[in-house]
Amino acid sequence: MTEKRIYVEQRPQGDYAVRRPNSERASDVLPTQSEAIQRARQLNNGIAPHVERVRHTSKGKPDQWRKP
Question: Where does this protein have compositionally biased stretches of type Basic and acidic residues (predicted)?
Answer without folding.
Answer: 17-27, 50-68
